[in-house]
Amino acid sequence: MPSPPLAALRTFEVAARHLSFTKAAAELHVTQGAVSQQIKQLEANLGFELFHRGARGLTLTDKGEDLAETAQTVFRRLFDKVAELQRPEESGILTVTASPSLAVKWLIPRLGRFHDIHPEIDVRIRPTGNRIDLVAEAATIDMAIRFGQGPFPGLASKPIMHETVFAVCSPALLAKGPPLRRPKDLKHQTLLHTESARMEVNSMATWSVWLGILGVEGVDPTQGPAFPNSYMMIQAAIHGQGVGLTWATLAEDDLRAGRLVRLFDRAVEGSMAYFVVCTEAAARKPKVIAFRDWLEEEGRSLARGAEEDHRVAQPS
Q: Mean pLDDT, to the nearest integer, of 226-250?
């Protein structure tokens, strides 16, 4: 069966968005009859109806709704890409993928600073917990912020922030007690976990590994609720539901705002870091270079703040 004409799909996308052939005709600068004819031909090509045509107007069929959702996404991405390519190379849309926790807790709150420096670059964040194939998605994604050790074969990469892991809780929980003076006092508290950390081999953000590195005994590292990601676990800690282990980057703003308190003045320094990762071709784009350099400076600022605010104790 031949593929439906692209022009007819575009006509359908506009008509589905307006639920009106008349409004679609106005947007496309054609007659209402031309729109109606395009839709009829498309329905004949597909072998199913896209609209219910009633006395009160148009409504989408079930298959029409499915196709409209996909068509709107595809055409929006297509027009975004065209607009980007029409802009000067040093400006335009910059699409960045990152984990939901990093995007919500660290990246998005700081984007205003980047926009102040580079108002010509329109940063769009695509949060995902999956590792996207940047080569296959090079047409729609410029770069990724990834957490790991590297290397990243076939890609350009640069570390922007190294990480430490420490325990946190809400000020209210700390005040309520029982006392939390030393890590062994955790035996009297509910421990909060993240499923994402549990899926990593020997992750320092799991209680069993963290307590083991610090040589803490008598604390059950398995008890307590688990959350899908670090962002949700941190929110649970903020609301006094227990003690959580967090990467320093994700907790910085909540610590400074007083929503969380860092416990024990003990942290585990790790070999994990956040990296800027992109294709070799993307690494040469001025907008990618600008965002990478800004991320590096933000990472340095985080490290300076950590040195000023905390003494990181190395476990013996």
A: 92
Label the pairing between strands 191-194 and 226-227: parallel
Average pLDDT over every residue of 65-73: 92
Distance from C-alpha of 135 to C-alpha of 153, rounded to nearest angstrom:
11
Determine which of 13-17, 79-83, 123-127, 312-316 has the lowest per-residue pLDDT on average: 312-316
Q: Indicate the pairing of strand 143-148 with strand 156-169.
A: unpaired
Structure confidence by residue, pLDDT tens digits, 177-228: 888 999 999 999 999 998 876 545 446 778 988 898 888 899 999 999 999 8
Q: What span, in angstroms and rounded, lies between the C-alpha atoms of 161 and 148?
A: 11
Q: Look at strands 156-169 and 261-262 and give their pairing.
A: antiparallel
6-86 is classed in which CATH architecture?
Answer: Orthogonal Bundle (1.10)
The tens digit of pLDDT for each residue in 252-264 reads 889 989 999 999 8
Is the domain spanning 92-161+273-306 CATH 3.90.180.10? The answer is: no
CATH class, 163-269 region: alpha beta
Do 128 and 136 contact (CB within 8 A), yes or no? Answer: no
Work out the widest C-alpha separation in the chain, in whole angstroms.
80
With 0.85 as the threshold, say if the pTM is over it. no
